Amino acid sequence: MKKSIIITTFILLVALLSLLTNGCNVSKKVADKSGAQLWAENCNRCHNSPGPGEFNNDNWEIVGMHMQVRANLTQTDINKIIDFLKSTNNQ
Ligand code: HEC
Asked: 82 CB less than 6 Å from ligand 1?
């Protein structure tokens, strides 16, 4: 009985420790996503994704601000998406 309490406590401590050391780290995999990938995963959740070339660069900035709020994206993610969407524009 006593032994099982000690084992359980130990397991909980290890779990807590790993949560404390890793819990708040953004996983590298998520942080490494490209603008194209983020665009493909997010912008078709509510409507068809507008693709690169559908708006000029100035309008992509506005759309970005608007959709960052709608889609609840971080500044880093929306910047990557907007850079990707602007990438085929020369304007
Ligand atoms: C949570 C739902 C949602 C997501 C996710 C979303 N949109 Fe939208 N989007 C909307 C809605 C709703 C509208 C219609 C305008 C409004 O009511 O705000 C819209 C309108 C637009 C428009 C029309 C122009 C404008 O600004 O109104 C564009 C372009 C657009 N979205 C692009 C995007 C892109 C690019 C992404 C990915 C970063 C995205 N959307 C992700 C909901 C979303």
From this structure: no
Q: Please tell me the distance from the alpha carbon of residue 73 to that of residue 77, in angstroms, as a whole number.
A: 6
Write down the residue that tokens 């889609």 correspond to: 71
- Token pair 């070339």 is found at 53
Tracing tokens 């406590």 back to the chain, one arrives at 9
| Ligand 1 within 6 A of CB of 42 | yes
39-87 pLDDT per residue, tens? 999 999 999 999 998 999 999 999 999 999 999 999 999 999 999 999 8
Tokens of 69: 């709020």
9 φψ region: left (φ > 0), alpha (ψ -120 to 50), beta (else):
alpha
Q: CA nearest 47: which of 83, 72, 71?
A: 71
